[in-house]
Write a structure and sequence with these properties.
single chain; mainly alpha; ABC transporter involved in vitamin B12 uptake, BtuC; 13 helices; 280 residues
Length: 280
């Protein structure tokens, strides 16, 4: 463990996975408790398409320098925010539902990725490493972006915790009491889109989805107060990102898959503890 932690080659990826896991685990409680798990999958797929389009753009135009670092996260975030805009618009348009928007946002990016990659084989290796979650290294710009975003988003959640929870879990009553439910929904979905876009670029869509929903699934199975659920989900997400990377290093497994399975193991453990506590 000490040898692993002291190796500078893995330090940035390890910190990125841990910090991203904390923020995604916290935000995932809203997603799971509101039964909108599919939104995380749709956003992760949209972010993957953004990363794919960015690499194709870089290769096609022969871009170098700063563009190599900035375009992938920017494209990923833009597409995730486009999905969020569609979700918010669906609330005011009876002709299309949120489920329809999410279905489109999930299947269309996947189809486009499969269609575009064979047309640009020179970009295939880079895109495949990101999408499959096998990339071992993380760019410094991705690490800093995720760290800053996490501080900002966690700060917003701490400051407006009661309002976010009230608007998410009981929106009808919240509206009657003057709580700006639509604005809080927009902030929440925007937060999820931002973190999903950044993390999908750095770690891949599979661990992004896993670190979002699995810690929350486990924490919500415990008989504890809601504040503790958020704390436990955040801690579990961070541990899953950290230990998943370490286990992948030890066993030479794909990083993203190992992080996801580590989060699943934590979820099963927490659910088991919850079941034991419910027994008379």
């Amino acid at each position: 463990m000490l040898e692993f932690l002291s190796n500078p080659l893995y330090r940035e990826a390890l910190l990125t996975a841990t910090v991203a896991g904390v923020c995604l685990g916290l935000l995932g409680v809203y997603i799971v408790s509101r039964r909108m798990v599919f939104i995380s999958a749709a956003l992760a797929q949209s972010a993957a398409l953004g990363v794919t389009l960015s690499f194709i753009t870089i290769g096609f135009f022969g871009l170098t320098g700063v563009a190599l670092d900035l375009l992938p996260p920017v494209f990923a975030i833009l597409l995730t925010f486009l999905v969020v805009a569609g979700l918010l618009a669906a609330d005011t348009r009876p002709t299309i539902s949120r489920d329809a928007v999410l279905g489109i946002a999930f299947i269309v990016p996947m189809a486009l990725i499969l269609l575009l990659l064979p047309l640009f084989p020179q970009e295939l290796h880079q895109v495949d490493a990101v999408i499959s979650g096998t990339a071992v290294m993380v760019e410094p710009v991705d690490m800093y972006a995720i760290a800053v975003a996490t501080l900002f988003l966690v700060g917003i959640q701490i400051y407006g915790f009661r309002s976010f929870v009230f608007a998410s879990l009981d929106p009808v009553v919240a509206k009657t009491q003057g709580v700006p439910v639509r604005l809080l929904d927009a902030l929440l979905f925007g937060s999820i889109a931002l973190m999903t876009g950044l993390t999908a670029r750095a770690l891949g869509p599979i661990p992004t989805f896993g670190l979002t929903v699995l810690p929350a699934i486990g924490a919500l199975g415990l008989r504890v107060g809601l504040k503790r659920v958020f704390v436990i989900a955040a801690i579990t997400g961070g541990l899953s990102g950290f230990l998943g990377y370490y286990f992948a290093y030890l066993a030479d497994w794909p990083v993203g898959a190992t992080q996801t399975l580590t989060a699943a193991a934590f979820a099963l453990l927490l659910r088991g503890i919850g079941l034991l506590h419910r027994r008379p």
